[in-house]
Design brief:
Elements lengths: L2 E5 L8 H12 L3 E7 L3 H7 L5 E4 L15 H19 L3 E4 L5 H10 L4 E5 L6 H7 L4 E4 L13 E3 L13 H8 L6 E5 L6 H9 L1 H4 L4 E5 L15 E4 L6 H7 L2 E4 L3 H10 L3 E3 L10 H11 L3 E3 L7 H13 L1 H9 L7 H11 L1
Parallel strand pairs: 1-2, 1-4, 2-3, 4-5, 5-6, 6-7, 8-9, 8-11, 9-10, 11-12, 12-13
Helix pairs in contact: 1-14, 3-4, 4-5, 6-9, 7-12
């Protein structure tokens, strides 16, 4: 039996694509181990899949000044030795990395141990962790064709995003029973795995107007529930959704979301008309802005920049999106973007 180590962590975007690969890897006969950070959010998500998990020391790589920049390199170095020890003991045939800071020592340790490494870059431009990992990678998978120009030609492969199979199997009737919603169209709001205060505030300020036309499922992030809105007719809020998400997607007629690459690729695969609110360039490296513009140019999404977001603009754009939803569905239906699982599994088989 061949062995594979999966790695990636920090946010759900670095974890859920790995989870999407698990059924196909098991079907292909791979023994699987996961390396993530100690006490990172990935630990609970991976252990819930009954996959053996090893935690290593992890330091954040920053582009800005911070006192931790003087101590975190030592954490990364410690993580490198820990990863190398795990790899030596487990002796994998291949490593697959979804990125995030914890993946860097794992990728380097694998390369030093002469184990083939495949990494996946979700965004249009590579993040810092994957920029470092690129030097040690055998192949680099991408979601967007635009990404290929930033990567070595002999390594880059357009595979698409691995999408969890269960997301494509949602049941509207199950969701109706879960929510108790009536016949109004349903608006699903996703603020990212950590939630978004800006999006949450705009939603709640415009909620009375939105509820005139829609029932609302609001995934607001941990610690972001508003107790004053509990029990409000037509409005349900959740800190995090796991098993129910597929059914909520099936029930939703339109979606408001951040523009993380994995989420928008799921929306494309599900053909869900969507309004994207990318994380601002002031609070990020601007990857979500590029992702959103790519989808807007393709006719898949409507976009509001965070700086233009208000309760008035949000409500108005949601109503416009719903009115013109068929145009977005038609554009997405013409896309040849497919679930990237099969493409990635082929590469893993080829190099392991």
């Amino acid at each position: 039996m061949k062995k594979i180590i999966l790695t990636g962590g920090g946010t759900a975007g670095h974890i859920t694509p790995n989870i999407a690969l698990l059924p196909a890897l098991k079907e292909a006969g791979y023994d699987i181990k996961y390396i993530g950070s100690k006490n990172g959010m990935e630990e609970g998500l991976i252990k819930a899949q009954n996959i053996p998990y090893e935690g290593i020391s992890s330091g954040k790589l920053r582009r800005y000044f911070d006192l931790k920049n003087f101590t975190d390199p030592f954490k990364v170095l410690k993580g490198l030795f820990e990863a190398k020890s795990i790899i030596k003991k487990y002796s994998p045939d291949i490593v697959f990395s979804k990125g995030g800071f914890v993946s860097v020592p794992v990728v380097i340790a694998a390369a030093l141990s002469k184990v083939p490494v495949i990494i996946h870059e979700s965004d249009i431009t590579p993040g810092l962790a994957n920029k470092i990992a690129t030097k040690f990678a055998t192949k680099i998978c991408t979601n967007f064709p635009e990404t290929l120009q930033y990567l070595p030609k002999n390594k880059a492969v357009l595979t698409g995003s691995p999408i969890r199979k269960e997301l494509l199997c949602g049941d509207r009737e199950v969701a109706k029973k879960l929510t108790g919603f009536g016949d109004k169209p349903t608006l699903l709001i996703i603020g990212g795995s950590l939630g978004s205060v800006i999006v949450n505030n705009a939603v709640r300020k415009s909620l009375d107007d939105i509820l005139k036309e829609f029932n609302v499922i609001h995934i607001c992030g941990k610690g972001n529930e508003d107790e004053s809105l509990i029990g409000k007719p037509g409005y349900l809020q959740y800190e995090y959704v796991d098993k129910e998400l597929k059914d909520f997607f099936a029930l939703s007629d339109v979606v408001v979301s951040r523009a993380g690459a994995n989420t928008i690729c799921e929306l494309l695969a599900l053909r869900k008309p969507n309004l994207l609110i990318p994380l601002s360039g002031a609070a990020s490296r601007g990857d979500q802005i590029l992702n959103a513009k790519s989808f807007e140019n393709a006719g898949y999404s409507k976009v509001i920049e965070e700086e233009d977001l208000s309760n008035i603009s949000l409500s108005a754009e949601i109503h416009k999106l719903y009115k013109n939803r068929q145009n977005y569905i038609d554009a997405m239906s013409k896309s040849d973007a497919n679930n990237g699982v099969s493409n990635i599994i082929k590469l893993i088989k080829q190099y392991s």
